Amino acid sequence: ETDRYEIEHSRGAANCQEPHVKILIEHLGTRGGGPQLQAEIARALIKHGESVFLAFDTTSEMSEELMALRAPTLRMGTLAARAPQPLRMFLRMLSQPLDAVRMVAFCKKMNIDIVFEPMSHPFQILPRRLVRALGIRVLTSVHDAERHAGEENSILSWLSKDDLRNTDGVVVYSSAVKDALDSLPVPIFQTVH
After folding, report:
1. What is the DSSP letter of 186?
2. SS3 of residue 97 by DSSP
3. Rounded to whole angstroms, how far apart are CA atoms 76 and 106?
4. For 48-66, how does the pLDDT look when each residue is reduced to its tens digit (9 = 90+)?
5. Quick one: CA dihedral 154, 125, 133, 39, positive or negative?
6. CA dihedral defined by 153, 118, 33, 102, rounded to 10 degrees?
7. What pTM was computed for the model?
8. Which DSSP string do the residues of 1-47 spell out, in sequence order?
9. At what angle do helices 154-165 and 125-133 cross, to 10 degrees?
């Protein structure tokens, strides 16, 4: 039910003139570089007058800052937000199918053109697949072509490969990463970090 969404209108999204692309910036992690990069990119795109929408976890460390951007927002994990860890993580995993359906409904209601994932997260796998099935383009971001020392593990490697197999394009922040990913069958866009 779309009336259950926590949607707020903003200067950035509400006042954009067509033919602006409607961009949903999605990051469902709660700490670290992902939420921070999400806020930084959203702020920059809104400043440029782009039509920005947000999807993030209710308990994100950047939740208040993201809400202050006043972009139309889909907050995920609201039912599990009050639960203590590790119960909260378990509830978030159980809510994945419902959250993915909520995101699809949000994208349909808002006529989203592109979902941009500034950083990967396991909770983004199912929503990404469903929105792509609807024909909404998904761009993912790759910061490093190789994992940093201490970050190597089979789950993270699988997640990175899944991101690249299920995207319509990749945003990179250096020519070294662009060169390393050059064999991908999708467009690669280089920008500054």
Report:
1. S
2. helix
3. 11
4. 999 999 999 988 999 999 9
5. negative
6. -90
7. 0.84
8. -GGGS-----HHHHTPPTTPPEEEEEE---STHHHHHHHHHHHHHHH
9. 10
Nearest-CA neighbor of 112 among 132, 98, 141? 132
Residues near 44 by Cβ (< 8 Å), separated by ≥ 6?
A: none
- Considering only the C-alpha atoms of the chain, give the largest distance between any 2 of them, rounded to a whole number of Å: 46
For 96, which DSSP code? H
Structure tokens at 11: 């200067």
The pLDDT score that the predictor gives to residue 8 is: 39
Which residue, 65, 63, 55, 64, is CA-closest to 5?
A: 55
Average pLDDT, the chain: 84
**What pLDDT score was predicted for residue 148?**
58
pLDDT score at 14: 46
| Under-50 pLDDT residues of the chain | 1-16
- Reference 54, options 123, 112, 126, 125; nearest CA is 112
Instruction: Classify burial at 73, counting beta carbons within 10 Å of its beta carbon; exposed 0-12, middle 13-18, buried 19 or more.
Output: buried
